[in-house]
Write a structure and sequence with these properties.
The protein has one domain (2-280): Alpha/Beta hydrolase fold, catalytic domain (Rossmann fold, 3-Layer(aba) Sandwich). By secondary structure, the chain is of the alpha/beta class. The protein has helices spanning 2-14, 85-93, 120-131, 149-160, 215-225, 268-280, and strands at 36-43, 49-57, 68-74, 98-102, 137-147, 166-170, 188-194, 205-207, 210-212, 233-237, 240-245, 254-259.
């Protein structure tokens, strides 16, 4: 019966996988670094056990002399982790990094009013602990990118853990219910927002059960927290504006890119080139 339930879980979670996504290589016991799906057991508040899939995306041939950087990528609400495969597969295939794509419970990340009631900080901690069993991973070069609800989760992880050297929250910003903490460690941030976004308001305000900060204020708060330069360097990229807060603690940097015609579904394939160049500096 348990095996049947597991198979149903995988079918439901990955029914929309594309041809590049691992579909039948489900192996939570082998610690060989390869493209696969691993399963993480987690208990909900009511002590119900859930089993959550995590996709590992790696090159076909592992260079055993190399320690690969790690990029966590979190989908938005209503999405699936396999959506990141096509966006990042050229980087993982070429060995730039190992992609880690967790699945949100009930297709969401728990920031309060979402469908999920899972402890997602604990979930990411469990994944990081599991990855410790693998060779050829560089935990000093671990990064995270997220979109929309996944962006909020990336912010929460940066606020509450010290896993990541740099993060890229895309199409969202800080929310009032998740303030920066005294214990928040310095992290580099590359925040991207679309000025024409009608889902997450760039000027802040109530939406989707949250109260969003103004996007510029969000970046400014990160910069103030880490004692960055008070006045950002402003770089015009056509009609778009890049704000760079440098000279931060621990050689970190805060960037905020405002895309004037950008809506909620920003062009991840284009953006990730700059995000990855940013990540590699830290």
């Amino acid at each position: 019966m348990k095996n049947i339930l597991l198979k149903l879980l995988i079918i439901l979670s990955f029914g929309s996988c594309d041809e590049n996504a691992p579909s039948d290589n489900i192996d939570s016991n082998s610690y060989s670094l390869s493209t696969k799906i691993i399963l993480i057991e987690q208990y909900l508040d009511n002590n119900n056990l859930i089993i959550r899939p995590v996709m590992i995306q790696a090159p076909d041939v592992i260079d055993t002399s190399k320690s690969y950087p790690i990029v966590f990528a979190l989908h938005g609400r209503g999405g699936n982790n396999n959506s990141w495969v096509n966006h990042l597969i050229n980087y993982t295939n070429s060995g730039e990094f190992i992609g880690i794509y967790p699945q949100g419970y009930l297709e969401s990340w728990n920031l309060g009013p979402e469908p999920s009631n899972a402890n997602d900080v604990e979930f990411i901690n469990l994944i990081v602990n599991e990855l410790q069993n693998y060779d050829n991973l560089n935990f000093d070069k671990m990064y995270a990118i997220g979109t929309s609800n996944g962006s909020g989760m990336v912010n929460k992880l940066a606020i509450e853990t010290n896993h990541f050297k740099a993060i890229a929250p895309i199409a969202s910003q800080l929310i009032e219910s998740l303030p920066l903490l005294d214990s928040t460690n310095p992290v580099s941030v590359f925040q991207v927002n679309g000025a024409a976004d009608t889902t997450v308001p760039i000027d802040g305000g109530p939406r989707l059960g949250h109260i969003f900060l103004d996007a510029y204020e969000s970046a400014e708060l990160w910069a103030t927290k880490f004692n960055c330069s008070q006045n950002p360097n402003i770089i015009m990229l056509g009609q778009d504006t890049l704000y760079v807060f440098d000279s931060c603690e621990n050689e970190k940097e805060i960037r905020y890119l405002r895309i004037e015609d950008g809506e909620h579904n920003l062009p991840l394939d284009v953006l990730f080139h700059d995000v990855w160049e940013f990540f590699k500096r830290f």
